[in-house]
């Protein structure tokens, strides 16, 4: 192999990649926050005990979980504006696509966590005189949240990786900025290797932090008498 | 809402979408078995006594799982040819990215499945005079494959969804055909909705089967 690597072009335009990194982080943070809201609503509908609320929520969840994320992006950008009569910029469309699809996954994480707490916990809390919202807040939720955390973190990682699809709508995320940089420097090998490395370092170090946090949590819940 | 739905473009040009479904299915049918085969090799590598092989396989798994698959695809299509001198066609680049990406997840499933079997099974089979490959094929895999089935089904679903990103490098699969149609007939709402429904019809049966399987296995283990 006598290819000579040359990172000078990438280094000279590092501000472009930095802007892309900020764009990726921004869209990921907003989509996680909105996805949690959407997920809580869907999970509440699923657990409402009323079929006319639970059924549609289930179908929304199943639809998002069983269609490709890229379809959601194109649908939000090209199709949704036709339906609502308002044109969306790439940022808004990408946030809608990301937060709705991750909301569908979060909903199942939240529902699964709540359902996994044994009935006896509810009954015992009621027996000592708590109202059901008190039982939920003081007894069930603290335990359920601990169980929800690992799958929640896993879905959030998936979401961060999925943000790269926003580049197909010309939103200035890290990948889109890399494509721009490539058209200036004509150095695809260096540009895309650097972008892959940035993603790897960011996600890998985040996953190490998450692993430590989960480990700590597992110890503290065990210490609390489980 | 004064928008009137008009599915005539979809109804007239459904063979175009059908062709896309064929390419999507082809990508999946090649990438999934390849991913399982590579995944098994990587999982065996991770069990190796050699620290170098162990570290390399773990690096492989972390690398492919911590980089967005779209970036892997773009890398194989635009960067890999410069490094190696082999210009890949979009279809081959897509197959490569999809297979390698899924193989990292498959290797994790194999690794967990194999580790779930007590070491006594290995020792017993070895004591009968079997080679390691024989132990794996005749004793270990038959017992753990069933346990790994739900996880592999879920991986197959993820892979089916991931095939859509091949449209970004102009592989003429379902997503690409859908976008081409919607650009040609200015009916994005109807056409992209139809594409989403087609994907759902293709993928949902797999998800349904996986959840049934999981419940059955959970019942049996009680």
Describe the protein:
The complex is a heterodimer of chains A (226) and B (222). By secondary structure, chain A is mainly alpha-helical. Chain A has a single domain, classed as MetI-like (MetI-like fold), CATH 1.10.3720. Chain A is built from nine helices and no strands. The longest helix of chain A has 36 residues. Chain A is flat. The mean pLDDT of chain A is 92. Chain B is mainly alpha-helical. Chain B has one domain: MetI-like fold (Orthogonal Bundle). Chain B is 81% helix and 0% strand. At the A-B interface, helix 3, helix 4, helix 8 and helix 9 of A face helix 4, helix 7, helix 8 and helix 9 of B. Chain B: Keywords: Amino-acid transport, Cell membrane, Membrane, Transmembrane, Transmembrane helix, Transport. Chain B: It holds the Pfam family BPD_transp_1. Chain B: It is found in: Cell inner membrane; Cell membrane. Chain B: This is Polar amino acid transport system permease protein.
Summarize it.
Chain A has 226 residues and is an all-alpha fold.
For the secondary structure, the number of strands of chain B is 0
The CATH homologous superfamily of chain A is named MetI-like
Query: How many structural units, i.e. domains of chain B?
Result: 1
Strand content of chain B: under 5%
Q: What oligomeric arrangement do these chains adopt?
A: heterodimer
Percentage of residues assigned to helices of chain A: over 70%
The number of helical elements of chain B comes to 9
Instruction: Provide the residue-averaged pLDDT of chain B.
Output: 93
Sheet of most strands of chain B? none
The main sheet of chain A comes to: none
Overall shape of chain B: globular
Order of SSEs of chain B, N→C?
Answer: HHHHHHHHH
The CATH architecture of chain A would be Orthogonal Bundle
CATH homology superfamily of chain B:
MetI-like
């Amino acid at each position: 192999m006598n290819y000579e690597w040359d990172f000078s072009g990438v280094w000279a335009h590092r501000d472009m990649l930095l802007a892309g990194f900020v764009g990726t982080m921004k869209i990921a943070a907003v989509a996680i926050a909105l996805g949690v809201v959407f997920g809580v609503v869907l999970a509440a509908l699923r657990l409402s005990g009323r079929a006319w609320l639970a059924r549609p929520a289930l179908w929304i969840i199943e639809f998002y979980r069983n269609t490709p994320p890229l379809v959601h992006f194109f649908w939000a950008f090209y199709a949704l504006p036709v339906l609502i009569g308002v044109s969306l910029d790439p940022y808004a469309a990408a946030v809608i696509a990301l937060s709705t699809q991750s909301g569908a996954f979060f909903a199942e994480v939240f529902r699964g966590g709540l359902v996994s707490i044994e009935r006896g916990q509810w009954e015992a809390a009621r027996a000592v005189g708590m109202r059901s919202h008190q039982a939920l807040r003081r007894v069930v939720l603290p335990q359920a949240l601990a169980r929800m955390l690992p799958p929640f973190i896993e879905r959030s990682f998936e979401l961060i990786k999925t943000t790269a699809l926003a580049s197909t709508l010309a939103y200035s995320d890290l990948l889109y900025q890399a494509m721009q940089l490539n058209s200036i420097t004509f150095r695809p090998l260096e540009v895309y290797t650097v972008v892959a490395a940035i993603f790897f370092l960011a996600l890998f170090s985040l996953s190490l932090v998450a692993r430590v946090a989960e480990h700590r949590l597992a110890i503290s819940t065990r210490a609390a008498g489980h | 809402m004064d928008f009137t739905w008009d599915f005539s473009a979809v109804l007239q040009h459904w063979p175009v979408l059908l062709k896309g479904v064929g390419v999507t299915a082809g990508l999946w049918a090649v990438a999934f078995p390849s991913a399982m085969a590579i995944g098994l090799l990587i999982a065996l590598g991770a069990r190796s006594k050699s620290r170098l092989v162990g570290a390399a396989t773990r690096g492989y798994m972390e690398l492919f799982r911590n980089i967005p698959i779209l970036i892997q695809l773009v890398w194989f299509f635009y960067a890999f040819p410069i490094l190696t001198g082999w210009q890949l066609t979009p279809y081959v680049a897509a197959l490569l990215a999809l297979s390698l990406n899924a193989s990292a997840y498959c290797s994790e499933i194999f690794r967990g499945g194999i580790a779930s079997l007590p070491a006594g099974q290995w020792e017993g089979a070895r004591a009968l005079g079997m080679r390691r490959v024989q132990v794996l094929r005749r004793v270990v895999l038959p017992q753990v494959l069933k346990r790994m089935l739900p996880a592999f089904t879920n991986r197959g679903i993820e892979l089916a969804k991931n095939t859509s990103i091949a449209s970004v490098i102009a592989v003429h699969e379902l997503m690409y055909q859908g976008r081409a149609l919607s650009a040609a007939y200015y009916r994005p709402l109807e056409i992209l909705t139809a594409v989403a429904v087609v994907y759902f019809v293709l993928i949902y049966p797999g998800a349904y089967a996986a959840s049934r399987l999981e419940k059955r296995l959970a019942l049996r283990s009680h």
